[in-house]
Design a protein that fits this description.
This protein is an alpha+beta fold and 646 residues long. The protein has three domains: 369 residues, DD-peptidase/beta-lactamase superfamily (Beta-lactamase, 3-Layer(aba) Sandwich); 94 residues; 134 residues, no CATH class. 35% of the residues lie in helices and 16% in strands. The protein has 17 helices and 21 strands. The strands form five sheets. An eight-stranded antiparallel beta barrel has the order 14-15-16-17-18-19-20-21. Strand 17 and strand 18 form a beta hairpin. The N terminus is likely disordered.
Length: 646
């Protein structure tokens, strides 16, 4: 996953758990059910053949090295299989029972399950201030409201995004406590107000599991989850610390370059392992799906009561019942009228997805050891549902029964709220912009990362729009009734409407004008070489200064291009080396540009009074100085200067 995409690649009941107290775990053991061997039905055999065909075609088209997949249904593992290879030499075949794939952020479902297990024991109140459970970490007060576990589980704590989570190696020596304090993000929204995916917030929840249980998170899941579920081929440890018997079966992350397959760099997240470091097999993940489809119990093992699991899969916030959201850590939405829960995951060279359909008693897990394309991982659950429900074609969106004047209130530029607000990497938010426009027929268009989707108002639902595939976006309003943000179909992203000064287009305009007038400044200097020049000392000084400042702008643009090319080659695995030299040099030039802009603005008075220039020369100098001032203002607003990179 490339750097800009990552920063782009890389959500009310009465207070108190007592108001929704779950049943205590049963004191008597649950009857054990022996899983006898079974012959698949004709329908199941056809489904398996259908999936085999899709995966084979996809792997051939996209040069995907290896895939693992498992499907469970009605309390059984239909199959757990491997496809392709898991090494660059193409010698080791993927195996659904033995090969470990990195599941990325699906690891977070273990955090949220652990939290609910402790909540059932009345050790965590989901509506209490998390500070009462934390040891060595304190969340600062803000907005007159505390952050609760419910906020963390819904990705609604209000934290800005922090790149620091991905800058630690596995041998950094930092504890989770130290890392959380070092990388603590600023609170930028009131708790509950916005959905914004937060790795740091999930890590904070894992820290609470540790502080409440008295053991490390890794120990907790081994004892309370992996052991009882016989998930012996699932680990939170990285390759250097992994059991040797598991390490030899760990799939290599691969990338296709120049027609050949190469090993990709291994992504390390050090102390943040709970949020994304788990490696597992398709077979083990079948057990994980079955325990959740069994509402917390399966084959004699009970992690939590059915009532607690109902809470786990319920939405704590009810502000968008018609759209995608987060149900206590599990992403939830509806596809073809079927509600599902799940989570995706991505590391440097792995894409994974887990989707559970309680109504159908069906679960799908899939992972691939290449991040070159994620189409299969993201779409195969939908294709399976299409198959099981008889096929489906997208709806033909009819022109809305509203005028473009009605929809114009939604038009504008929106920025993804999963971004930094206070640090240098705010600059990369320009790559996660949503541009919304309308046409005269009443259609609404949303453009993100170069892709445009057409939406129409959902009948009878204010501020809800749907595309032909059933994906919905929902707009939110402020107290004055003005549209200020929207949430998309991902469950975990919201976009904030921005004014002109915060619009990335304004940054581009300021940079463009500074470049334009730098060019005309140099062109004017070249033209004046053949003409007599004023010997006024101030005029000569200002001529030289403007020439030098124009050169500085060109140098700054050059360092920006260098930085963009450098970071375009960055992967998540490279982030421990962030900030790179190109970032440091570019920021240094940016600071000098700001100083030069200030000097140019200050020099306007002597330019008009003492330079001896013509009116047109003075006017050009003025607009050049103003363009520099505009650029300097944008560099400050976008945190290119006067901010940290950490």
């Amino acid at each position: 996953m490339r750097f800009p995409v990552l920063l782009a690649v890389l959500s009310i009941l009465p207070a108190g758990l007592a108001a929704q107290a779950p049943d205590a775990a049963p004191s008597t053991p649950v009857e054990t059910i022996e899983l006898a061997a079974f012959e698949p039905t004709r329908e199941e055999a056809v489904l398996e053949a259908y999936i085999d065909g899709i995966i084979a075609a996809y792997m051939r088209e996209h040069d995907t090295p290896g895939v693992t997949l498992s499907v469970v249904s009605h309390g059984r593992v239909l199959f757990a299989k491997g496809y392709g290879v898991v090494d660059a030499q193409g010698q080791i075949p993927a195996n659904g029972q033995e090969t470990l794939f990195r599941i990325g952020s699906i690891s977070k479902t273990f955090i949220w399950t652990a939290v609910m297990m402790l909540a059932e024991q009345n050790l965590i109140d989901l509506d209490a201030d998390v500070n009462q459970y934390l040891k060595g970490v304190t969340i600062p007060d803000a907005f007159g409201a505390p952050i609760t576990m419910n906020h963390l589980m819904a990705h609604r704590a209000g934290f800005e995004n922090t790149i620091g989570v991905f800058t630690h190696t596995d041998d950094s020596g930092l504890s989770l406590t130290e890392a959380l304090n070092r990388d603590m993000p600023k609170r930028v929204f009131a708790p509950g107000a916005r959905t914004s995916y937060s790795n740091w917030g999930a890590a904070l929840a894992a820290k609470i599991v540790e502080d409440v249980s008295g053991v490390s998170f890794e120990t907790f899941i081994k004892i309370e989850m992996l052991g009882p579920l016989a998930m012996s081929r699932t680990t939170l440890s990285g390759p250097t610390k992994m059991n040797a018997s598991l390490r030899e079966h760990l799939a290599a992350g691969l990338t296709v370059e120049g027609g050949g397959v190469k090993d990709a760099a291994y992504m390390q997240i050090g102390p943040y392992a709970p949020v994304g470091a788990i490696a597992s097999t398709a077979q083990d993940m079948s057990q994980w799906m079955l325990i959740h489809l069994g509402r917390g119990a399966f084959n004699g093992v009970r992690l939590m009561s059915k009532k607690s699991h109902e809470i786990l899969w319920s939405r704590r916030f009810n502000d968008r019942p018609d759209g995608a959201d987060v149900a206590h850590g599990f992403l939830t939405k509806t596809y073809r009228g079927v509600e599902f829960y799940g989570h995706g995951g991505a590391t440097n060279a792995f894409y994974s997805n887990m989707v559970l359909y309680p109504e159908l008693e069906l679960g799908v897990f899939i992972s691939q050891n290449s991040a070159d394309d994620r189409t299969l991982v993201s779409t195969i659950p939908d294709l399976i549902i299409d198959r099981l429900t008889g096929g489906w074609t997208g709806a033909d969106l009819q022109p809305a029964d509203v005028s473009s004047q009605t929809l114009v209130e939604y038009a504008g530029t929106y920025l993804n709220n999963r971004r930094s607000f206070t640090k240098f990497d705010k600059l990369f938010a320009v790559s996660v912009t949503a541009q919304i426009s309308v046409d005269e027929k009443g259609a609404l268009f949303v453009e993100t990362q170069g892709k445009v989707r057409n939406y129409a108002p959902l009948a009878g639902k204010a501020d809800v729009f749907e595309d032909r595939y059933g994906n919905r976006i929902i707009f939110g309003r402020n107290d004055n009734g003005a549209v200020t943000f929207f949430t998309d179909a991902s469950s975990v992203h919201s976009y904030e409407r921005v004014n002109t000064i915060q619009n990335p287009a304004t940054l581009n305009l300021a940079l463009g004008l500074a470049i334009l007038f730098s060019i005309t400044t140099w062109a004017g200097a070249w033209r004046r070489q053949s003409r007599p020049v004023s010997h006024n000392a101030m005029g000569v000084l200002l001529n030289r200064m403007s020439f030098g400042v124009a050169g500085l702008v060109f140098a700054f643009v050059g360092t920006m291009v260098w930085m963009m090319l450098d970071l375009a080659a960055f992967s998540v695995a490279d982030l421990p080396a962030y900030p790179s030299l190109s970032v440091t040099v570019m920021r240094g030039f940016a600071l000098v540009v700001v100083a030069a802009a200030f000097a140019s603005l200050v020099s306007l008075w002597p330019a008009w009074v003492r330079s001896g220039w013509s009116f047109w020369r003075k006017s050009h100098y003025t607009v050049f100085a103003l363009s520099l001032g505009g650029l300097a203002l944008m560099l400050v607003i976008w945190n290119v200067v006067f901010s940290s990179t950490g």
